Amino acid sequence: MRIQQFPFSVASAIALSTALLSITSGCDYRADAGGDQQPPAGESWLTPDQITRAGITTVLVSEEEVGRQLLLSGRLTFDDQKVTHVFSPITGRVTKTVAALGEHVRAGAPLAVIESPDLGAAVSDVAKAKADFNAAERDYRRMKELFELHAGAERDFEVAEDRFRQAKAELDRAEKKARLLKGRVDEHVTQEYTLRSPIEGEVIARNANPGAEVQGQYSGGAGIELYTVGAADRLWALADLYEVDLPRVKKGSDVTLRVVAYPERTFAGHVDWISGAVDPISRTTKVRCIVDNRDGALKPEMFATVSIATRGHQALAVPRTALVRMGDQLAVFVEIGNAPNGKVRFERRPVQVDDEGTDREVSILHGLSAGDRVVTSGAILLVGSA
């Protein structure tokens, strides 16, 4: 059980007490019409008019399904399906950068232009393989006709057939390589390779600059990442869940996320995945939550507090606004009927709470019963008089 701290400054208490004095000026709510009856300790007596002017409202205590919140520490990161790291497939020199940092690009949009002899060689290989294929095809057909007319040797026919098949395989290989580099197969020989974005998103990082030499991945080298493109309209929140809390979290559970950059704001999401293994050192399991970020307020690598809604339970519950902290104790004010002078009686009652509820309500462990009527607004105004 955790006891929530309900911050209330001395200045605020003085201001509210002053407001109550102004509301009740000219009328001593501790005395009856004759001025000789005082409320006992721990009680406050108010007239209906004073209650209305002070804005005091009450609600009946009843059993409700109280949701529990599991608080975890987490870290924001990109959705793996919505971020890509772009490398150059060929070795060459960057001659032009097209996409700038922060620019939104569509899938297939050019990022940079690289001049590379590898691209020219790939296109030339297609033309050469096509010429060899045509020659091998003609020779194969000629030898086949001679063999069928018994005018040629079977050995010569088989050699021609093998050459034809080899030429066809080489042409397929050259065309696929050219298509991989250029996106299409044509006979236009060029050394300019256009590096394109595989997905739609924002240019997050750029390491390409005009004149820079790049190593191609297809050349077997260790190339550097030239661009990072990602969409941040939906982020992942990765949190560590302790082994003991595993039964409480289910896939699809609602999530509320807070970050220090926006202390007054919450972000909604849901649990998307729970790891199938427990870390042997920390005894925690990774939980992945999908968080809506269409306005772009959240940034990857931010730290966050992740609140996961778990299965609720039936309990006596009151709104959080009903709780008043008095020293190291929590209390509520309960309406207990009318005094002999006709004023409404409010009794201060210490309570013990289970604070794993929601932002709106808290469950009561001791101090109240079903059917009690508690003050939910203006309770702080009764503190000084009880």
Structure notes:
With 386 residues, this protein is of the alpha+beta class. Among the domains are: 10-68 and 313-385, conserved putative lor/sdh protein from methanococcus maripaludis s2 fold (Beta Barrel), CATH 2.40.420; 117-190, Helix Hairpins (Orthogonal Bundle), CATH 1.10.287.470. The protein has helices at 10-23, 48-54, 117-148, 154-182; strands at 43-46, 57-60, 62-78, 83-86, 92-97, 104-105, 110-115, 192-196, 201-206, 213-214, 227-230, 234-242, 254-258, 267-274, 284-292, 303-319, 324-326, 329-338, 344-350, 352-354, 361-366, 373-377. Strands 1, 2, 17, 18, 19 and 22 form a six-stranded antiparallel beta sheet that branches. It has a six-stranded antiparallel β-barrel with strand order 3-12-15-14-13-16. Strands 4-11-9-6 form a four-stranded antiparallel beta sheet, with no helix packed on it. Helix 3 (117-148) packs antiparallel against helix 4 (154-182).
Note the total helix count: 4
CATH topology of the domain at 10-68 and 313-385: conserved putative lor/sdh protein from methanococcus maripaludis s2 fold
In the CATH classification, which architecture of the domain at 10-68 and 313-385 applies? Beta Barrel
End-to-end separation in angstroms reads 28 Å
Q: Biggest sheet, open or closed, and with what strands and sense?
A: 6 strands, antiparallel
Q: Give me the count of strands.
A: 22
Strand content: 35-45%
CATH class of the domain at 10-68 and 313-385: Mainly Beta
Instruction: Using the CA coordinates, give the radius of gyration.
Output: 38 Å
Which regions contain 5 or more consecutive residues with pLDDT less than 50?
1-35
Following the backbone from N to C, one meets helices and strands in this order, namely HEHEEEEEEHHEEEEEEEEEEEEEEE
**Overall geometric form:** elongated
Q: Mean pLDDT score, rounded?
A: 82
Q: Tell me the helix content.
A: 10-25%
Structural class: alpha+beta
